[in-house]
Each structure stands twice: as C-alpha cells, then as structure tokens.
Design a protein that fits this description.
Largest sheet: 7 strands, parallel
Order of helices and strands: EHEHEHEHEHEHHHE
Helix content: 40-55%
Keywords: Oxidoreductase
CATH superfamily: NAD(P)-binding Rossmann-like Domain
GO molecular function: oxidoreductase activity
Number of domains: 1
Organism: Planifilum fimeticola
Oligomer: single chain
Strand content: 5-15%
CATH class: Alpha Beta
Distance between the termini: 38 Å
Protein name: NAD(P)-dependent dehydrogenase (Short-subunit alcohol dehydrogenase family)
Number of strands: 7
Structural class: alpha/beta
Family: Belongs to the short-chain dehydrogenases/reductases (SDR) family.
Length: 256
C-alpha cells in the first residue's frame, strides 16, 4: 500500500457545517486534494463565500444550504448531491455546536436543542446517505465528535452527552452497515483554533497560553489537523478500519 492510498481525487465528499470553522477547513482542504465537494450550512452568504474560495482555487463545489434538524431537508440535500455528482463517496458529519452551560441551570428545552444539534442531525444524515452508498456498493462516513464526548466536561454537559452519543452511534452503525461496505468512523477533536476560538482568545493571550500548557504537544489544534485525519479515514489508507474513534487533541485530556 503506497502513498496513492491517500488519494481522494475525483471522490464526492459531503461536508456538513462547512460555512465556517472546522468544516470550512476540511471542505477547502478536500477540494484542494481533488475531491468534488458538497458544502452545507444554514447561512447562505457564508456558504457562497466558501464556494467562491474553492472555485477560485480550481476546485469543484456544490453549495447545499439546508437545516439538518429537518429530516426532509436532509434527504433532499443528499438526493441533490447524488443528482449533481452521480454518487456520494464520503459523508463528513461536522455540523454541530453548543454554548457554555451548567446542567443545574440548563432547561429541558436547552438540553433538547443541544442534543438535536449534535446527535439527531448526525443520525439524519447517516440515514439519508445509507441508501445511496448501499446502491453504489459502499462509502465512508466520518462523524465529528469531541473530546468532551470521551469524559465529563463541566460547562458542557449536554454537549458532551450528545458527542458521546455520536461515538456510540458510530460504533453501532459500523457493525450494522458493514454488510453494505460502508465504513463508519469518528474523530474527536480537542481545542481547535478556528475563527470563533480566535475571537474568544483574542482578549487574553494568557488564557491562550494556559490552554497550550494543558496540552502535551504545547499547541492548539488547527483545522488542518482534522483535515488530515479525515483524509486518512476517507481513503483506501483506512480500508480495514471501521467503528473507531480517533482523538485529535495533541495528547490533551479534553478538560477545557
């Protein structure tokens, strides 16, 4: 197995939540490696800006605005990608998000919203893409969880519970869908220096240094770190890997 095992050229890759942050970095990186990329988000203008960036670099991209909390919109999006590109080789479930919360102060509606944003839509996207991948003979699904899903994280209780659910869902889907030749794996990022995180840390260089001190590799992650893990799981290099979770956190424990 040589370096060509990491080749993604010509593959059709769907990246959810790709109008900003990790998803944006992964989508642009995949396009840069020659993949045909379908990008998704709820904010159309941000999505168009990412599409322009990919096109200007010579990449092939299909913007797919959709609310992934609505299963009918998810099914329509996957069908649109199939009709446009002819197939879907890789689905990267990146969309999600949260806010700082103590569980004692979190309302049931707030808990439901966090779980819906981080777990339900992963299941919706997997369910919608399965018939397409099964019909074409297989595919790859990469679910983005978090180190918060690997252990308790004060201030992120609902988020951590949802991301733990993503890990368990990944393992079960891998077992149930192996007969379709669909590999399902997971990535658990640590602290990634996205635009949003940069804004949070902009006012305190000391806070940034403290976060770096907690990480054995002594640096915060960047979207390219997640892209590299996605490339491995999306290509033939990982052809015998399914049901696994790769922590990409610089050796950090996950406690923010």
């Amino acid at each position: 197995m040589g370096l060509n095992s990491y080749d993604i050229k010509g593959k059709v890759v769907v990246v959810t939540g790709s109008s900003q942050g990790i998803g944006k970095g992964v989508a642009i990186g995949m396009a840069g490696e020659g993949a045909k990329v379908a990008i998704n988000g709820r904010k159309t203008e941000k999505l168009r800006a990412v599409a322009r960036e990919i096109e200007e670099a010579g990449g092939e991209v299909l913007p797919c605005p959709a609310d992934l909390r609505d299963f009918e919109q998810v099914k329509a999006m996957m069908q649109r990608v199939k009709e446009h590109f002819g197939r879907i080789d890789v689905l990267i479930n990146n969309a999600g998000g949260s806010f700082s919360h103590n569980l004692e102060d979190l309302s049931p509606n707030g808990f439901d919203a966090v779980v819906r944003n981080n777990l339900h839509q992963v299941f919706y996207c997997c369910s919608a893409v399965r018939p397409i991948m099964a019909e074409q003979g297989g595919g790859r699904i990469i679910n983005i969880s978090s180190v918060a899903g690997l252990r308790g994280t004060p201030g992120l209780g609902a988020y951590g519970a949802a991301k733990a659910g993503v890990i368990n869902l990944t393992e079960t889907l891998a077992l149930e869908w192996a007969s379709y030749n669909i590999a399902v794996n997971c990535i658990a990022p640590g602290i990634i220096l996205t635009e949003g995180m940069e804004e949070v840390l902009a006012s305190s260089e000391e806070a940034k240094r403290e976060l770096e001190r907690r990480i054995p590799l002594r640096r915060l992650g960047v979207p390219e770190d997640i892209l590299n893990a996605c490339l491995y799981l999306a290509t033939e290099a990982s052809s015998y890997v399914t049901g696994e979770t790769i922590k990409v956190a610089g050796g950090g424990t996950g406690r923010f």
